[in-house]
Amino acid sequence: MDNKQYVDKYYMTEVDSFEDSIYCHHAMMGEQFITEHTHHKDQFLYTEGGIVFLKTEEKSYFLPARHYIWIPAGVKHSIHPSSPEVVMRNLYFPKFETDSAFYNKVNIYPVNDLLIEFIMFTNRWNGNIFPVEEPKYSIAKAFKLLLPEISQTELPLALPYPKHEKLKEIVKFLESKIDENIGFKAIASQFDVSERTLARLFQKELNMSFIQYYTILRMLTALKLLLDEKMSVNEVAMRVGYSSLPTFSNTFNKIIGIRPSEYVKNKNLLL
User: Fold this and answer.
1) Which residues are 255's β-sheet partners?
2) Cα–Cα distance between 47 and 28 in angstroms, integer?
3) Which residues are CB-neighbours of 204 under 8 A, at least 6 positions away?
4) pLDDT tens figures, 184-239
5) DSSP 79-137
6) With 60 as the cut, is the pLDDT of residue 8 above it?
7) Which of 80, 108, 132, 224 is most exposed by smallest CB count within 10 Å?
8) Centroid of chain to Cα 224
C-alpha cells in the first residue's frame, strides 16, 4: 500500500463522507509520511511516541510532545513523523455557527492535563460520530468548544518558507552554520546586500525580523536535538551557537514555554 492510498483511505474519503459528523481516528502512523491533502473539516491533531513535522504551502510546523496542532478546513498539508511508530490522535470537526476566529488559523498549542484526559477519553471512539449519537456527539462537540478557552498560548513552533531566491540562500546558510553565532552584519556582508535591504527582505518575505527568525530556527533545532539525540543541555546549547548556558535556557524557555532541563527531565513521560 503506498502513501497516497493510505491518505485516500483514511484521510480523504472517510473523514468527509458525512458533512455533519465528527470523525475520530486514533492509529499508529505505519508510514514514513502522509502526502499533501486537504479536508472539508477542521482537524485537531495530537501525537505520541515521537515528533511530527507538518508542512503547509506557507510554513513548516514542528509538533513536539505534549502539544497539538489545529488545522482549519481547506488547508493543504503533509505530515512527516519522526518514525512510523508515532501515534496520531485526530478529531475532525464540521463548522459550527458558534465558531470564532480561533478556528481559522493553523497554530500549535500546549496541552494541559484536562485536555489529555479528554483526548484519552476519545480513544474508545473510531470513525464517524453523528448528531443523533448522544451523549457521545455532545461530548465531542464540547471538546472543540473548549479549545479557545484552554489554548491561550500560541507557540511559534513554525518557520515560513522564503520565496525570494537570495533569502532562500541565506536561510540555507543559517541552517548549515547553526552551531555558529552568526550576526546580522556578517550575513549582510557574506551575501553582499545592505543591512537595510536584508532587514526589509526578512520583514517583507517572512513577516519577522532576522533575529526573530534566527532565534526560532535555533530553538527548533535545539528542541529536535533534545528529543532525537542523547545530548546534554549544554551540548545542545553549543550545537545551536550558544556559549552561555543561562542565555540558551532563558531563550528556550521564552520560545518553547519550558526550560530545556525540565524538558529533558519530562521527555520520556511526554513521549
Assistant:
1) none
2) 9
3) none
4) 999 999 999 999 999 999 998 888 899 999 998 999 889 888 876 678 899 999 99
5) EEESSTT-EEEEEEE---TT--GGGGS-EEEE--HHHHHHHHHGGG--EEE-TTSTTHH
6) no
7) 132
8) 12
Written as nine digits, the cell of 45 is 491533531
Here the cell at position 110 is 500546549
3-state secondary structure of 9: helix
Q: How far is CA 3 from CA 44, 118, 239, in A?
A: 21, 30, 34
Q: How many alpha carbons lie under 13 Å from residue 241 in its C-beta half-sphere?
A: 19
Q: Has residue 58 got a pLDDT over 90?
A: no
Cis-peptide into 64, omega within 30 deg: no
With a CB cutoff of 8 Å and minimum separation 6, the contacts of 129 are: 21, 22, 23, 24, 136, 137, 140
Contacts of 238 (CB under 8 A, 6+ apart): 179
Computed on alpha carbons and rounded to an integer, the radius of gyration of the chain in Å comes to 20
